[in-house]
Amino acid sequence: MNILDKIIVDKKREVILKKSIIPVSQLEASVFFGKKTISLSDNLRNSTSGIIAEHKRRSPSKAEINYSFTVEEVTKGYENAGACGISVLTDGKYFGGSLDDLLLARATVNIPLLRKEFIVDEYQILEAKAHGADLILLIAAVLTREEIKTLSEFAKSLGLEVLLEVHNQEELEKSIMPTLDMIGVNNRNLKTFEVSLDFSKQLAAQIPDDFVKVSESGISSIEAINELKPFGYKGFLIGENFMKTNNAGKAATEFIKQL
Ligand SMILES: O=P(O)(O)OC[C@@H](O)[C@@H](O)c1c[nH]c2ccccc12
């Protein structure tokens, strides 16, 4: 079994357990159900930098990136740096994140927040809304077209935007539908961890213009962004490059200043 399959098996068990402990009615009682969300796609369309900065403590490909920051200092730093939005990893087992991280981020910043999670069930979208997210991620590699449709429609019904992540042409072709706002090409193969900007470059032309194009992972230089922009990319998701420093906010500030 590859790592992605393992994560999904664990995630499905986790969702079953959580559903039995926290009922939907409790999630729906959250103050965030009465609040409007902020649009990341609008921010990206109107930005010259397009940076979506990620809060990421560790990953399956890197045992430890950084455990010494608080969520507040990282997210405040990203907001002050001029990021268009922030991605918050909420998976615990593989990424060391939590829904509390999302809640703390929401209490700290006023820019769009992505719940970065392996979403397999509508329940997780309710959790995202209940903890202050503005958008969710759907990963084409682990969902059928029917699932992408149901989950994205559900997200939209709650006012959340949808970023759909693909890694190859087949995933892209099966996924295109009007309930998506942004399409992200992951430069990292989640099954093998191979990273190359070529994945973004190769798929760009096949992404219809109605979706904001986002390039995700393995971006660590201004040159990389300048290479990707001519392919139509408006958003750039960066985690490790900021989180591995001793001041993520400062690293993001210095990066964005050059764009
Ligand atoms: O740290 P990086 O290489 O800058 O990557 C950030 C982000 O793209 C990556 O964390 C990511 C992209 N898609 C995902 C899906 C699940 C978990 C994590 C991810």
From TrEMBL:
Pfam family, one: IGPS
Assigned EC number: 4.1.1.48
Keyword Lyase in record: yes
GO molecular function: indole-3-glycerol-phosphate synthase activity; phosphoribosylanthranilate isomerase activity
Domain of life: Bacteria
Signal peptide feature range: none
Indole-3-glycerol phosphate synthase domain residues: 4-254
Reactions that this protein is recorded to catalyse: 1-(2-carboxyphenylamino)-1-deoxy-D-ribulose 5-phosphate + H(+) = (1S,2R)-1-C-(indol-3-yl)glycerol 3-phosphate + CO2 + H2O
InterPro entries assigned: Aldolase_TIM, Indole-3-glycerol_P_synth, Indole-3-glycerol_P_synth_dom, RibuloseP-bd_barrel
UniProtKB keywords: Amino-acid biosynthesis, Aromatic amino acid biosynthesis, Decarboxylase, Lyase, Tryptophan biosynthesis
Keyword Amino-acid biosynthesis applies: yes
Protein's pathway: Amino-acid biosynthesis; L-tryptophan biosynthesis; L-tryptophan from chorismate: step 4/5
GO biological process: L-tryptophan biosynthetic process
Similarity field: Belongs to the TrpC family.
Listed HAMAP family: IGPS_B
Name of the protein in question: Indole-3-glycerol phosphate synthase
